[in-house]
Amino acid sequence: GLKDVFAPMGIQVLSVHPGPINTAMADKAGFETSDSVESVSEGIVTALAAGEFHLFPDVMAKQIQGAYQSFSDAIITA
Fold this sequence. Notes:
globular, mainly alpha, two-stranded parallel sheet, 78 residues
């Protein structure tokens, strides 16, 4: 994957999986509740500093993280 291709060049790849974020697009999509934009931006900085590959930065994204993790382990990072 891209993670392995870019690692020797000192480039880190982060796969970000946000749910509804408090933006005009979330409003137009009809989401009544959404997380702050900062939840994503701060999550990205924290995940990169920790050397993580996946980021599920908000409440809804964290709900699907468990289901996605088994797919990721078997297909994406295998």
